[in-house]
Amino acid sequence: MRKEYETVIGLEVHVELATKTKIFCSCSTEFGGEPNTHTCPVCTGMPGALPVLNKQVVEYAAAVGLATHCTITQVHKFDRKNYFYPDNPQNYQISQLYLPICRDGYVEIELSGENDQKPEGNPGTENTARTENTSGAENNSGAENISGTEIDRAMRKKIGIHEIHMEEDAGKLVHDDWSDCSFVDYNRSGVPLIEIVSEPDMRSAEEVIAYLEKLRMIIQYLGASDCKLNEGSMRADVNISVREVGAEEFGTRTEMKNLNSFKAIARAIEAERERQIDLIEAGEAVIQETRRWDDEKEYSYAMRSKEDAKDYRYFPEPDLVPVVISDEWLQKIKDSLPEFQTEKLSRYLKEYEIPLYDAKIITGHKKLADIFEAASELCKKPKKVSNWLMVETMRLLKEEEMDPEDLTFSPKNLAGLIELTEKGIINSTVAKEVFEKIFHQDVDPEQYVEEHGLKMVTDDGVLLQTIEKILQENPKSVEDYRKGKEKAIGYLVGQTMKAMRGKADPAKVSQILKEKL
Amino acid sequence: MVENRITDETMEYVGILAKLKLSQEEKEQAKKDMEKILDYIDKLNELDTDGVEPMSHAFDLHNVFREDRVENENQRDQMLSNAPEEKNGSFVVPKTVES
Amino acid sequence: MNLLSLTAVELGKKIHSKEVSVREAVEACCEQIEAVEPEIHSYVTTDREAALKKAEEIQKKIDQGELNGPLAGVPAAIKDNLCTKGWKTTCSSKILENFIPTYTAEAVGRLEEAGAVLLGKTNMDEFAMGSTTETSYFGVTKNPWNTKHVPGGSSGGSCAAVAAEECFYALGSDTGGSIRQPSSFCGVTGIKPTYGTVSRYGLIAYGSSLDQIGPVAKDVTDAAAILEVIASYDKKDSTSIRRRDTDFTSALKAEGKGLKIGIPKSYFGEGIETEVKTSVLHAAEVLKQQGAEVEEFDLGLVEYAIPAYYVIASAEASSNLARFDGVKYGYRTPDYEGLHDMYKKTRSEGFGAEVKRRIMLGSFVLSSGYYDAYYLKALRTKALIKQAFDEAFKTYDVILAPAAPTTAPKLGSSLNDPLKMYLGDIYTISANLAGLPGICVPCGKDKNGLPIGVQMLGNCFEEKKILQAAYTYEQTRTRERCDLAKKRDTAYGTEQKTIGEGAGR
Q1: Exposed, middle or buried: residue C486 (CB in 10 Å: 0-12, 13-18, 19+)?
Q2: Inter-chain contact C235–B93, Cβ cutoff 8 Å?
Q3: Between C489 and A254, the higher pLDDT residue
Q4: C229, C199 contact by CB (below 8 A)
Q5: Would you say C403 and C183 are in contact if contact means Cβ atoms under 8 Å apart?
Q6: What residues of chain A, 47 to 66, have a C-beta less than 8 Å from chain C?
Q7: Which of A78, C149, C244, C467 is the most buried (most CB within 10 A)?
Q8: What is the pLDDT of residues C405-421, one digit of tens each?
Q9: Which string of DSSP letters, residue by residue, matches C420-480?
Q10: ipTM confidence score
């Protein structure tokens, strides 16, 4: 019989920072662009070129560290990581090994509670991970913990952050199917990254995804990155091992790469867990290696090359000088941290009087919160705004498989739409139609309604005429209603609305019909 | 003093790290040179450096930054002007296959 | 008067006063290059046309009063590890044989702004790794004083070109003595400035934490004037230092009084040639006569500098030279199977033996399991060496020493024993580890007529003190020119008239 196993997971998350320029040169970080059009001697590794650090990178990295309860290394340095690969123009990557900018932090994740929590291993080996369902008391940055027991009954767990360091991204390799060649584009070479290395504190895909979502939310709140997994501005490498429940030692871990969505991450974790358990059950050893996930085939393979020894020969980067973050500078970064979800949530509950559930969802995404606040400010109808975000926006996001961060419509147009419905200029059916246009093309609702003749018909004459016509055309329904079949009125309202091309107030239609009958 | 003995495996390994392929003759010579130089370098072990902070920069220079401002324009043609092989604005390399 | 015998500053004055035209100066150099290059081989690249064209441009600017610095119009040579836009920059390596940078090194750019006319790029040890200029892919450079001997290295081409009067001055680079040692061997004046004084932007790195660019000149005045031009803060080099005291020519005072000079006893022990020792100590004696206080002292840790240096320099080099891989520029092997084969063949065919040796050593000392024992140990030793100098400079303004234990060795006598070659760097290497400035000026010749140089080291940022000491010493001597430079003096006899006439144009 198969023994019981637990999965031990740690994450290395790379996040591309939202700076205008690269980390060591003043080339643009703009996405896209013809190959090698955002390059210079520094980011193509020309001989004699030298790196100069972008100050904004330090500030973003420190802000992420503060928001994740890290200790900021006030004197930190860069190191060279040496390895040959064509996407790495100098054949070394400037990174931080010995003195990374942030260390020893955590983020707190919320779990639904009823989920199968694998029993923890020997508590002696667990330093940082602990599951608790009390409200967090030590809340220093505001990025964590919803206080007040009423607000939150979910299980909480702290995921330790081992370190955060700054480094440069590599270029892009495009493989040519028709020849034995690859093409190298250095536009991404030198784009600033932070790598957030977690402790091996996660035990399930659910925890991993909760952790990633939390990280993403924090970083988006900071404006330090847009964190898009599908575009590669957030990338997660997953370290996985399994061990028998109760075992003290960690098992041998593998590192899984090429995970481009939460779904892929969940599938890869499940598959790798099974693969490792199968090996162990068969009496074979798990080999410490890097594996690449193929999400289409739902399978991973080892990335092995006898031409590469994983020996990066790190040493202090002689072309850069140490960074010293003074107390004053650190304080300035602290002071500039934005309002995080916790604070926002309690403010929303007080200021806007929207339901807790809605407030949690909206504050869970910086983008939604931004739209919410701006639109509410414009139309002074926060409950309506919240409604549009919670119902129609969510529905369309799901349909389009988009993230809230991908939203492009302006709060002004949502506010305008709400005003149109409030004034009774359009009815709710038309409003939904207009909202779809706003969602996709950010149209001006007033103009759109005008141009497409979608205003409600307020002229009773036209409406009465239409109703007369409908009654004549549908004698059976009229009869049914008169016989007491209340439902028949619904059909007649529908027909009238259809004839009016939706531009009537259905309540009013219903009322007139009843009178007529 | 224990003499440094560099094995063939070590030479092979360093060759992989440094991306150098030495002929047998070169390898023998390099091995001998390296042993000799390392023996000499071992002289450092006579020196008590306990508690000494490793010094990578001779001076205490710090916080040299750039402002986050785009200054470079498209200079692709210059960047590619020395490329051994180039196509459609990209550097061309032998296919990099992962597996 | 012979034009080529002038120093750079002397020539600059004559150009300024219209006694000599820039074109005449450039042509004189080009003719000298043509005449002596077959014997010396100081240059890897020359471009007469470009130089003459530049001469016209500069002349115009001088005539219009736009350029009036001391070096305006003076022809110069540049070591071939400094990038020059549009000029091949090879580091004397096959791997960069056809590399034409699209940017100019900051130091070279500063010279051009001051009105320098570039004549060409000078030969060097491949990637500056060597002490003889024999590791160049393009063949050895010979010592103008005796062509059976090496010029020293790695800036051997720059020093030989200045000594052979193929240019009025040159730029070199110094990672472990590469300016001072060949200056000593070629009887010219060279300065390695305080680390960070001259921008390294555009200098093809060997050991980044040790490399400094500096002048190679005919005398101390020239060297100070050149350094004054190239020393500047550069935001493109993060290790560049903002200095306000770069008016180096103000230190050119013949005044020994007030200078306290220390002579490290351990530098004059085993391994030093008697003639070198005598000559260098005599220079100290002269400075004493000029009013300086001179005394011997114990400088510690001397024997640890070389091993620490070779660990640090090789480690940095192994990483700095990783970028030469046949992908972006430079040589790519014609036949290969796949990426890694391309890398290995390109690099194995593109680099010479000494470069490969140091890359291997550097990769080894950084590799897993050895980093602490070698690299960190070397960085700790470096810290101790710096402390020893800090201590010495509490007492002394200048440390006076030889630049090399011997005069220039015979061609081909050094390469077969790399370790022996490394040991020759003993007097120069510490200055690079500690970031100190050093100057080397001629102080005599051995019985074979080969020059001997005296080195003066100062505390960080105290170039002025060593300049003053060197200048004071230099004033007691007459500048010597090598026979090869003098050989064509008669040929210029007829030209002398033209020069005189040219002044009226």
Answers
A1: middle
A2: no
A3: A254
A4: no
A5: yes
A6: 47-53
A7: A78
A8: 999 999 999 877 777 77
A9: HHHHTTTTTHHHHHHT--EEEEEEEE-TTS-EEEEEEEE-TT-HHHHHHHHHHHHTTS---
A10: 0.95
Q: Which two tokens stand for residue A139?
A: 């809340």
Q: Are residues A215 and A254 in the same domain?
A: yes
Domains of chain B, first to last: 1-46 (1.10.20)
Contact yes or no for A180 and B75 at CB 8 A? no
Q: Where in the sequence is the domain holding A495, given as residue range(s)?
A: 460-516
**Residues of C labelled as active-site residues:** 79, 154, 178
A259-262 long-range contacts (CB < 8 A, ≥24 apart) are: A259/A235, A259/A293, A259/A295, A260/A229, A260/A230, A260/A232, A260/A295, A261/A229, A261/A230, A261/A295, A262/A209, A262/A212, A262/A213, A262/A229
Interface of A with C in 155-174 (CB under 8 A): none
Q: pLDDT, tens digit, for every residue of C88-103?
A: 999 999 999 999 999 9
Structure confidence by residue, pLDDT tens digits, B16-68:
999 999 888 888 888 998 999 999 999 999 999 999 999 988 888 999 999 99
Please list every residue in chain C whose beta carbon sits closer than 8 Å to the beta carbon of residue B95: 338-339
**Number of structural domains chain A divides into:** 3
Which residues 51-80 of B are in CB contact (within 8 Å) with C? 52-59, 61, 64, 66, 75, 78-79
C241 to B56: CB separation less than 8 angstroms, yes or no: no
Contact between C190 and C455 (Cβ < 8 Å): no
Is the link from the previous residue into C42 a cis peptide, with omega within 30 of 0?
no
Q: Is the pLDDT of residue B98 over 60?
A: no
Tell whether C330 is within 8 A of chain B (Cβ): yes
A210-269 per-position pLDDT tens digit? 999 999 999 999 999 999 888 889 999 999 999 999 888 999 999 999 898 899 999 999
Q: What is the per-residue pLDDT across A494-516, written as a single tens digit (0 to 9) for each?
A: 888 888 877 777 888 888 888 77
The helix/strand/coil state of A308 is coil
For residues A127 and C432, which has the higher predicted lDDT (pLDDT)? Answer: C432
Which residues 6+ apart lie within 8 Å of A494 measured at CB? none
Residue for token pair 């079949």: A485
**From A304-313, A314-323, C167-176, the region with the lowest mean pLDDT:** A304-313
Contact of A90 with chain C, judged by CB distance below 8 Å, is answered with yes
> Chain C closest CA to B66's CA: distance in Å?
8
What is the 3-state composition of chain C as percent helix, strand, coil, each rounded to the nearest 5? 45, 15, 40
Q: What is the rounded CA–CA span in Å between residue C375 and residue A99?
A: 17
Tell whether A173 and A243 lie within a shared domain: yes
Q: Tens digit of pLDDT for each residue in A137-155?
A: 334 444 444 444 444 556 8
* DSSP states along C252-290: -----TT-EEEEEGGGGSTT--HHHHHHHHHHHHHHHHT
A289-305 pLDDT, tens digit each:
999 999 998 999 988 66
Any idea how long chain C is? 505
Residue A120 lies in a domain: yes
- Selecting from C89, C329, C368 the residue whose C-beta is nearest the C-beta of A311 gives C368
Burial readout A441-473 (b: 16 or more C-beta within 10 A, e: otherwise) = eebbbbebbeeeebebbeeeeebeebbeebbee
Q: pTM here?
A: 0.88
pLDDT of residue C33: 97
Partner-chain contact C209 B84, CB within 8 Å: no
Co-location of A211 and A137 in the same domain: yes
Domain C3-304+380-499 has CATH 3.40.50.620: no
Contact C125, C92 (CB under 8 A): yes
